[in-house]
Amino acid sequence: MGFHTFPVERADKLEDPSRYRFCSREELLEMLAPDADDVVADLGSGTGFYSRDVAPFVDTVYAVDLQEEMHEYHRTEGLAPNVTLVTAGVDSLPFEDDELDGAFSTMTHHEYATDETMAELARVIRPGGRLVTVDWSGAGTGDDGPSMDERFSPDEVVGQLEDAGFSLERVHDRPETLAVVVRR
Ligand SMILES: C[S@@+](CC[C@H](N)C(=O)[O-])C[C@H]1O[C@@H](n2cnc3c(N)ncnc32)[C@H](O)[C@@H]1O
């Protein structure tokens, strides 16, 4: 698998509403099922396309991205009042142990899926907290999204998360994307 970051020059593509055909706001919220007082993280938040969708339903969203230029784009698009931008890699998060009630990741897992990152997520999400991972599927067609050799299958993603101590709640295998919901 190739690990890389999404090019900032193509950030405008992340704001295209047609992306909802791969993951809608509604399904993301249904899977995360947050409480209004939850503190959650958007892992690899990019331009904030999904941070803005989740923000009205939680207390705080930490929008985590390692590219400061993506945060600049996020500010330009509009920063919700309860979204805090965090410049960090998902493998080294500036959060206390068990600090997060939950986290979500859209189309980014394949860019950061290392053992170190999975362990870091298990450290910062509190026991019982939910992690929702939506990403391009290795069982997809490759017609949209990254090349097939960069992707993981639903079973691989489940295995990575279970190895880090998460428990599987749901897995969805769709035409082009996977969705995996686990609990710490
Ligand atoms: C494909 S974009 C998706 C952005 C957003 N999740 C969305 O769906 O609109 C991936 C984003 O994750 C960020 N990223 C990649 N690897 C990362 C890592 N290890 N830690 C933090 N951010 C990362 C990239 O900088 C990029 O902004």
TrEMBL record:
<dbReference type="GO" id="GO:0008757">
    <property type="term" value="F:S-adenosylmethionine-dependent methyltransferase activity"/>
</dbReference>
<keyword id="KW-0489">Methyltransferase</keyword>
<dbReference type="Pfam" id="PF08241">
    <property type="entry name" value="Methyltransf_11"/>
</dbReference>
<keyword id="KW-0949">S-adenosyl-L-methionine</keyword>
<dbReference type="InterPro" id="IPR023576">
    <property type="entry name" value="UbiE/COQ5_MeTrFase_CS"/>
</dbReference>
<protein>
    <submittedName>
        <fullName>S-adenosylmethionine-dependent methyltransferase</fullName>
        <ecNumber>2.1.1.-</ecNumber>
    </submittedName>
</protein>
<dbReference type="InterPro" id="IPR013216">
    <property type="entry name" value="Methyltransf_11"/>
</dbReference>
<feature type="domain" description="Methyltransferase type 11">
    <location>
        <begin position="42"/>
        <end position="132"/>
    </location>
</feature>
<dbReference type="GO" id="GO:0032259">
    <property type="term" value="P:methylation"/>
</dbReference>
<keyword id="KW-0614">Plasmid</keyword>
<dbReference type="InterPro" id="IPR029063">
    <property type="entry name" value="SAM-dependent_MTases_sf"/>
</dbReference>
<keyword id="KW-0808">Transferase</keyword>
